[in-house]
Design a protein that fits this description.
By secondary structure, the protein is an alpha/beta fold. The protein folds into two domains: 6-163, Rossmann fold (3-Layer(aba) Sandwich), CATH 3.40.50; 181-336, Rossmann fold (3-Layer(aba) Sandwich). The protein has eleven helices and twelve strands. It has helices at 20-34, 53-62, 118-136, 146-156, 194-202, 219-228, 243-252, 267-274, 305-317, 319-336, 339-346, and strands at 6-13, 38-45, 76-79, 92-96, 140-143, 161-162, 181-185, 209-213, 235-239, 256-258, 279-282, 298-301. The strands form three sheets. The protein has a six-stranded parallel beta sheet with strand order 2-1-3-4-5-6. Strands 7-8-9 form a three-stranded parallel beta sheet, with helices on both faces. A three-stranded parallel beta sheet has the order 10-11-12, with helices on both faces. Helix 5 (194-202) runs parallel beside helix 6. The radius of gyration is 21 Å and the shape is globular. The termini are close together.
């Protein structure tokens, strides 16, 4: 493809929040611009104020009609996180970070919001119907992981192709000595289940420590948990850290322990592997399991603090094993993840 196209990347934006979904959209814009295209990132504010408001949020994107733009003004719309793929354009594709999980897989869990009252059931059904209508309009449909594709197939009966985005700083991450600390970087949200990681740390027999970079609604509760378990001197909450600090902290860590509930994708897993670090995770971690193979690129255990603690100690006591698994992870992501591969798929409808 030799000519330049005008591309809109569509993404919802929670005011003052910048997490994995926001990075996903920003990185896509950057990669498309480097490839020579003219790109605009179009956002609408997304604010959760209750179940009923979720329909208003969806309909706001349905009114975003790029078909009405001047002829040729927009060649391609790449929609991302829900509900941006409800926008309209004849050459619309979607690279779905996730659907509205409260309507699907999170509904029967403690992380969901919708109840079983008749009006809430009707609202969920209406949102699913709108979802399916919008997704079936897409000329190509991708997800950020096989786990997200599986959910879409399971709940909507719509097939999609996993397409992996390289994480931020992937070309700058480097491996250093496997130090005495585990590292986590990301939003401190209950669904990340960092409480399980802290509980595991309290059950270890080694001198391993944990450094946590990031902010979020679970921060205070996690600090209180560390204090209650008597490990506050072994858990360091760093808050926001610069990219330069992330590179240093990743390079020097022992490895990473990732214990989310059914993660969509998880940039952090790939960041660990690009830095040549092993990952300890759980059997219910979702997209993390597309990359972590037990005793090959890390350890996979039951979602139990004692089981996690045992494998953390194994990392601490076997630095040669850490290096071997970390290098295997690096080979895996370098082979499967690149912007060249992603952009070839995203722009195929322009050929």
């Amino acid at each position: 493809m030799s000519r330049s196209y005008r591309v809109v990347v569509a993404a919802p934006q929670v005011p003052f929040l910048r997490g994995g979904a926001e990075l996903h959209a920003e990185l896509t814009v950057t990669a498309l611009r480097k490839a020579g295209h003219e790109v605009d990132l179009v956002t609408l504010p997304y604010t959760w104020t209750g179940e009923v408001d979720s329909m208003n949020q969806a309909l706001a994107w349905r009114l975003a009609n790029f078909e009405e733009a001047a002829p040729g003004a927009v060649d391609l719309v790449i929609a991302t996180k829900y509900p941006s793929y409800l926008a309209r354009h004849p050459n619309k594709i979607a690279w779905v970070f996730h659907q509205q999980r409260e309507v699907y897989d999170l509904h029967p869990t403690g992380f969901g919001n919708f109840g079983l009252a008749d009006d809430q059931i009707a609202l969920r059904e209406a949102l699913v119907e709108l979802d399916m209508e919008a997704l079936l309009e897409c000329r190509a449909l991708f997800t950020n992981s096989g786990n997200t594709a599986r959910r879409m197939e399971q709940y909507c009966g719509i097939p999609a192709t996993p397409l992996y985005a390289p994480p931020p700083l992937h070309d700058q991450l480097r491996s250093g000595p496997h130090g005495d600390y585990l590292f986590f970087v990301g939003r401190l949200d209950p669904i990340k289940r960092l409480d399980m990681t802290i509980e595991a740390l309290a059950a270890t027999s080694s001198a391993v420590t944990l450094k946590i970079a990031g902010r979020g609604p679970a921060a205070d509760a996690l600090k209180e948990l560390a204090e209650r378990l008597g490990v506050s001197d072994r858990v360091e909450f760093l808050g926001f850290v610069s990219d330069e600090d992330v590179l240093e902290l990743m390079a020097g860590c022992l490895g990473m322990v990732l214990t989310p509930h059914d993660e969509d994708y998880g940039f952090t897993t790939l960041e660990a592997f690009f830095a040549g670090k092993p990952v300890v995770t759980t059997t219910d971690a979702g997209g993390v399991l597309e990359w972590v193979e037990d005793e090959v690129t890390g350890f996979v255990v039951a979602p139990d603090p004692a089981a996690l603690a045992g494998r953390i100690d194994d990392l601490f006591n076997d630095r040669a094993g850490c290096e071997r698994m970390g290098l295997a992870g690096r080979e895996r992501v370098c082979d499967r993840v690149s912007w060249d591969k992603a952009l070839a798929a995203l722009t195929a409808t322009l050929d």
